[in-house]
Design the sequence.
């Protein structure tokens, strides 16, 4: 029967599994971002490295993820998304094996760099979904795929904490290698290659310029607290990043096949969506960073609960489950009222979550409730962002554009990490014979994160309206459906 074969030519049974397989890949990649956080305090004793070197296990994944996500998205648009997806998963598996077989800090940092580079899996998966699925399934599917970035981060902390307390720490990396290999086999078996391609030549000079700009900026942001924000190293990196960015932008505007199409990126619909993504990433990450640390603070501080590392990780698990449950809800909101409305609602929910956290920081269950509200808003936001991107960019640039949007979330997370570290380091007092952050430090972080969510709301309200130009459809459904159909026809 002709209806039994989808557009990709795969059997319908396989076609039904494309989204679950891609979502599983995205979740595994997202878990890698937070996998080592519970391990960090123990790394110096386990490896003989300095605390500063141990911190690079997190920093390096941020840097490689930021650089490779838009680059591999562009490569996927040009040469095949499934092909690049498989390469990314292969790199993830290799990085996991390196970390599993060694206790040398240099090898561990190298392995973590490879794990971070695989973050491109998420925008590649979104682009494959847009190309392969029937239009009516695109919105809920990209909602789930985009949410995996938050779901995996929330799940990674408690899982890593449990492994740390009950097994050798290398087990985490052997497990991640097994998951990476499983992803590879599933993609080979289930996921088809997308026929949609963008034209032109790969922009090597533009890629190097983007990498230089991002590395300088993110190094300054992540290391500024240790180096000093006014130190020559920090200011030099910021200045160099700005200069490289200006030269890169000038070059990209003049080249025929740019790494990033700045003219498209400068459109209000794209620019404001990326600004909102940065602010949402900031607001989301504050929730992940401070929840575990806050509940682990000793009771001598007057506000800490003295919980174990496992309990602190489990505080974020309900939020991860809420993100799974809410991704289809977000898709329905986007379909009925448009992704702009969904993103505005998400920003409000996140701000409300931080208000809850501000007033209920002494009870474990209320802390979990506030964190879950923030995660719920994040789920709606992360589901709406790719829909906004897709309706504003050419079909041949979907992976690159979503890669850039994912990059903006990562930059927001990096900025959040720097702000949280600065606030917790400067607002301290002596409690129980040790220096600890004050309760006001945590409350200030909640206010800053709520402000970031409200700023994302402001950026969202300036986006073009969700109202359709034609009749007979609601919200963003017309635009997304039309773009998917155009992609099929161009293929």
Sequence:
């Amino acid at each position: 029967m002709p209806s039994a074969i989808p557009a990709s030519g795969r059997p319908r049974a396989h076609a039904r599994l494309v989204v679950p397989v891609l979502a599983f890949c995205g979740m595994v990649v997202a878990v890698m971002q937070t996998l080592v956080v519970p391990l960090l305090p123990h790394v110096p004793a386990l490896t003989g490295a300095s605390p500063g070197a141990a911190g690079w296990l997190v920093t390096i994944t941020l840097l490689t993820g930021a650089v490779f996500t838009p680059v591999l998205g562009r490569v996927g648009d040009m040469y095949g998304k499934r092909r690049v997806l498989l390469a990314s998963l292969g790199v993830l598996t290799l990085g996991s094996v390196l970390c599993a077989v060694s206790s040398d800090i240099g090898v561990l940092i190298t392995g973590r760099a490879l794990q971070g580079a695989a973050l491109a899996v998420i925008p590649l998966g979104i682009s494959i979904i847009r190309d392969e699925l029937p239009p009516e399934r695109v919105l809920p599917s990209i909602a789930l795929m985009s949410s995996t970035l938050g779901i995996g981060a929330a799940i990674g902390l408690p899982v890593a904490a449990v492994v740390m307390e009950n097994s050798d720490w290398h087990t985490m990396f052997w497990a991640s290698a097994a998951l990476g290999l499983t992803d590879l086999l599933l993609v080979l078996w289930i996921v088809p290659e997308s026929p949609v391609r963008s034209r032109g030549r790969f922009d090597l000079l533009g890629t190097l310029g983007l990498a230089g700009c991002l590395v300088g900026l993110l190094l300054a942001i992540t290391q500024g607290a240790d180096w000093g924000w006014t130190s020559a190293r920090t200011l030099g990196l910021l200045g160099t990043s700005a200069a490289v960015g200006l030269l890169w932008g000038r070059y990209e505007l003049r080249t025929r096949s740019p790494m990033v199409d700045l003219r498209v990126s400068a459109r209000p619909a794209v620019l404001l969506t990326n600004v909102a993504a940065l602010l949402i990433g900031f607001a989301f990450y504050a929730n992940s960073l401070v929840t575990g640390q806050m509940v682990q603070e000793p009771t001598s501080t007057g506000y800490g609960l003295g919980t174990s590392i496992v309990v602190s990780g489990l505080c974020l698990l309900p939020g991860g489950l809420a993100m799974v449950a809410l991704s289809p809800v977000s898709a329905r909101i986007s379909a009925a009222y448009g992704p702009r409305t969904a993103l505005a609602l998400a920003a409000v929910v996140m701000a409300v979550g931080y208000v809850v956290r501000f007033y209920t920081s002494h009870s474990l269950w209320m802390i979990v409730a506030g964190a879950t509200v923030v995660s719920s808003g994040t789920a709606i936001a992360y589901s709406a962002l790719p829909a906004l991107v897709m309706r504003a960019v050419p079909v041949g640039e979907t992976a690159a554009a979503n890669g850039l949007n994912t990059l903006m979330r990562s930059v927001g997370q990096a900025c959040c990490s720097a702000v949280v570290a600065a606030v917790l380091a400067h607002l301290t007092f002596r409690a129980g014979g040790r220096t600890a952050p004050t309760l006001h430090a945590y409350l200030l972080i909640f206010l800053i994160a709520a402000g970031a969510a409200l700023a994302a709301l402001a950026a969202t309200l300036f986006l073009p309206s969700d109202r359709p130009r034609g009749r007979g459809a609601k919200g963003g459904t017309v635009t997304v459906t039309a773009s998917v159909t155009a992609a099929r026809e161009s293929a």
